[in-house]
Prior knowledge:
By secondary structure, the chain is α/β, with parallel strands linked by helices. Strands 1, 2, 3, 4, 5, 6, 7, 8 and 9 form a nine-stranded mixed sheet that branches. The N and C termini lie far apart (67 Å).
Amino acid sequence: xEKSISIHRSLIVAICIITILAPLNRAAAEPVKVLxxxxxxxxxxxxxxxxxxxxxxxxxxxxxxxxxxxxPVKRARHLFESEKAxxxxxxxxxxxxxxxxKAVFHVKKLFAFVREGSPIPSAIxxxxxxKVCLTRGFTYPRKITMNxxxxxxxxxxxxxxxxxxxxxxCDSFVADPKVGANALEKSxxxxxxxxxxxxxxHMDVYFAFRTDEHGKDLAMKFTQxxxxxxxxxxxxxxxxxxxx
Length: 244
């Protein structure tokens, strides 16, 4: 009789455990809701673009199913910040209004362009007391945008900033190397220099996840997958467009 009661109790305990764990297992099996926004060449669609392929390959290696959607940037960011999505990319500290678990996949470098004869700033603090041109819509470190000692001048086109710089209407123009070099060539301006080996600032670009345990676990798995992809050459192949 006692043996029968013991077995009965064991069955009840087992059923209770299964009942408790079942929703957790279902939740774990649900695809990770991922949001991003269009960036020429990098985010083209739900399956095309360098950043998209990077994310999908990292997820595949980590054994994670994803539901990826491309939305307007402000909506995508807002949905992630309001916890209506599990992941968002590409993210930078200066562009998110919430903390996030991170899987860093790129370091964005910013450089200062100045007129010849002027020292090239190698630290943000060296911009203080000066008028600095920025490109509207680009993301910059808060140490620049929130610094009251730096006078900012925003233009919608980086070519305009180079023309202002050449005419002594600002002291420096801050940009990433590709945008800056291309805009300088288009502007046709002379007498402007920068130091390719001396970045003004570095900004981590990452796949963002929530800060709960699930988000931290995802960030860790993606970080490991990205490291593996760099070691076997997949990362470089994707970013160079050589992997279909």
